[in-house]
Amino acid sequence: MLVVNRFRVPEVDRDVFRVDLETARQVLASRTGHLGSQIGRNLDDPTLWVLTTTWENVGAYRRALSSYDVKMGAVPLLSRAVEEPSAYEVVEPGTVLNVESTRSLG
Predict the structure, then answer these.
(1) How far apart are CA 42 and CA 52, in angstroms?
(2) Phi first, then psi: what are they for 38, rounded to 5°?
């Protein structure tokens, strides 16, 4: 699964934000199920930043978010992300897509 977190950061806060974002990326990267991550900044609008992370599955991502280290080292920064859906399923040829429906607990 792919997670895309976008951030709006005033230029005056750029350097501090960049350090905080790298710290958050490293904390997430230390969790089981993390496959990779990247930080980017928009070429046309330098106040727009992105953190993308790739995970084995949604469970690995959710377990990472609930860990103490991530709650302390990444969640405060992630809470500053642009409010929009951030979790995506990876779609490759032949992939069976997730079906939006109510799931049974029993």
Answers:
(1) 13
(2) -145, 150
